[in-house]
Amino acid sequence: MRRVVITGLGPVSSIGIGASAYEAGLREGVNGVSPIACFDSTGFPYYMAGEVHDFRPEDMVRRLSVDEWGRTSLFAASAARLAVADAGIDEDELAAARAGSSMGTTGGESQVLERLTGDSLTAGLDGLDAGLVRQVSSARLSQAVNRELRLTGDAVTLSTACSASNYALGYAYDLIRTGEADYMIAGGADSVGRWSHAGFYRLGALTEKACSPFDKDRSGIITGEGGAAMFLESLESARARGARIHAEVLGYGLNCDANHMVAPNRDSIAECMRIAHRNAGVKASEVDYICAHGTGTPANDYVEASAVVDVFGENPPPISSTKSMLGHTMGAASGLGAIASVLGIAGSFLPPTINFNTPDPDMPKIDPVPNQARTADVRIAQVNGFAFGGNNAIVILGRPS
Amino acid sequence: MTLAPELSAESVPAPTGPPALAITGFGVLSGAGIGPQALAAAIGGHGAGPADVSGMFEEPLPRQDAHALVDFKVRDHLGRKGTSFFDRSTALGMVACKAALADTDLEVDDDNRARIGITLGTTAGSAKSTSDYSRDTFVQERPYLVNPLLFPNAVMNCAAGQAGIWYGLQGPNATIAGGPLAMLNVLRYSRNLIGCGYASALLAGSIEEFSPQAAWAVHYGQSTEGGSLPPGEGAAVFVVENADAVRAAGRRPDAEVLSVEVGVFDPPGPDGAFSQGLATCLTRALERAGVTADQVATVATAANGMTRLDEAEEAAVTSVLGSDVPRLRVKESTGEAFSASGAFQLAALLARHRTEPARDGEISVITARTAEGAAGAAVVRGWSRAGGDHG
Prior knowledge:
Structural class of chain A: alpha/beta
Shape of chain A: globular
Order of helices and strands of chain A: EEHEEHHEHHHEHEHEHEHEHEHHEEEE
CATH architecture of the largest domain in chain A: 3-Layer(aba) Sandwich
CATH superfamily of the largest domain in chain A: Thiolase/Chalcone synthase
InterPro entries (chain B): Beta-ketoacyl_synthase (IPR000794), Ketoacyl_synth_C (IPR014031), Ketoacyl_synth_N (IPR014030), Thiolase-like (IPR016039)
Order of helices and strands of chain B: EEHEEHHEHHEHEHEHEHEHEHHEE
Oligomer: heterodimer
Organism (chain B): Wenjunlia tyrosinilytica
Number of domains of chain B: 2
Strand content of chain B: 15-25%
Number of helices of chain A: 13
GO molecular function, one term (chain B): 3-oxoacyl-[acyl-carrier-protein] synthase activity
Radius of gyration of chain B: 20 Å
Domain Beta-ketoacyl synthase C-terminal (chain B): 276-350
Helix content of chain A: 25-40%
Number of domains of chain A: 2
CATH topology of the largest domain in chain A: Peroxisomal Thiolase, Chain A, domain 1
Domain Beta-ketoacyl synthase-like N-terminal (chain B): 22-208
Largest interface: A-B, 79 and 86 residues
């Protein structure tokens, strides 16, 4: 089995596009949440989201025609472009290699379907734009990455909701580890839309203005969007081409609560952490930082903190939530979390949990890295991802030795 | 139909790369009916053809026929309790999972349920559920007046998550949006999970529901590319395990998935680049399966009447396997069912093996392609259960 490293980062987020801008946003604890612009939020009691207002796909992709691809596919392809540029690999060399992509998502191109739904109310189902209908398939997210970069290997879209990027990262890691591929782009993408904003609101899971994970007064998520892409290759490959190695993928764990569609399960999440540690060959005591799923709902954060204490004991490593800054970017969430962790490993800092005011006395004692990023030596980081359907996925990243 | 070459277990060299997947049972619901026999009959030319779907939905449909399970009701299969909120996609997937579990000799119990998972393919989940959710935000008195109980249906991993709960499977639970490539993506993903030891068995399959949204999507796609195929729907789910482990335990698989190769190329067009890409996948699949072109008895193609894609696929198949190998055009019997189509191709081959012991040990190829340029091929070897040589 080959060792697998991350040599390129491509975040497209509400707090920064590109690794440098994203790292600066994380270090400063920037709030990426703003009033919704992509749809008319009139009539919605809550109207905030983590949109990427500065996203200009036409300035980022080169081969794809932006008119032919949905916003989520363009997030994926744009993030992939950034990751490849950051990896510093020659594009023709990459296109000729055994390379592919593995991207996660929750809603896929559901904002295209939403637009078609709106159109059908006025034009009828027989009056729709056939080109737009073609864009609905979520398979296109990874296919967009391959087409943009001329990758001729796997194109896989993992649609395991809010842990999907971790699934995607894990699969890409395996494909390289086992020799099935030489280079992989892994990450995820999602877009803000009316249906999910309404759904989370009615589920009682949406908060009004600010997402405050682990806080006593936390009251829910803010929907967000963006793209995350990481460039993966074998350690030998990275060394041979003199690439800058950001981090190593040590392993991952998957399991399923098989218990409830939306309520998280403490024992199952703890078990997923143990599986991830075992697969990665690390001990809980060696983990320096946990990038939390940390949605900001009362249930998730309590269950997550409790499971962490079950596995790590009374003094767990610092655990912070990038969702406090980004909102919940759904299928991109654990990918943006993984990139934040990689930056933390490479740059020796912990991203903060912003909007944190009051510790929750009913929650096990944790260190959420409140409000300010912190300098810290991060050798091993754990990225948590949980989802509807009890789809748990946890990735372990390490500093390359 | 040409006679299949006689094959013994010894004549097939050991596959290279990851372990082959054994299929130890499967369940299928297609427009041809419920179960393998109905599908085998349909591909043998004895199907009833598309059904009248004019009474299924309030919304207008582009045509009144489809390979749909018009009378399908989830409560007939899973009971009333806990099933009333399942959407059609989830219900079809759940029933296919149930049938697969009933068909396999793998027993699920408390000792192994953490090692048994689910990998299901889709295109965009239940497009109807998601679209209806969006619709409510436009037409309700207040845009947020959507039904929270239906929210999980609008998310793509609903079927896999519900199946995990229903059948108590705690292993890796994945959903892959692959459209027409979904089943091949699912097989590759499943092979990795099993080969790397994340799971010891998986329910691996793919689902597509019939709905007004799906009907119109088929209509726009077909009419743009000169086709006239009606829509289809259903699900097929296969119990997959490590082939070596199954044989070591003295069990007999229904089939082995010897190889699955996929890729993305420039979309089908006059330059022939896509055909070359698919041909590369097909050649690689044969090599990794350790079989030669002359050993292939059947090609289950993705042909659906969309000329540009059909011609590109046929050119690739002909260049690698020649023009004499019988083509099995499964979609003629099951309609255009996007992500379920690949699952139907596999299910059709297995259903035929089950009804025709003379085909024991035959090697078949499955091909898939999309308008976006994704392509893939799988090599499968199957047996009947009627005392055939299970290798």
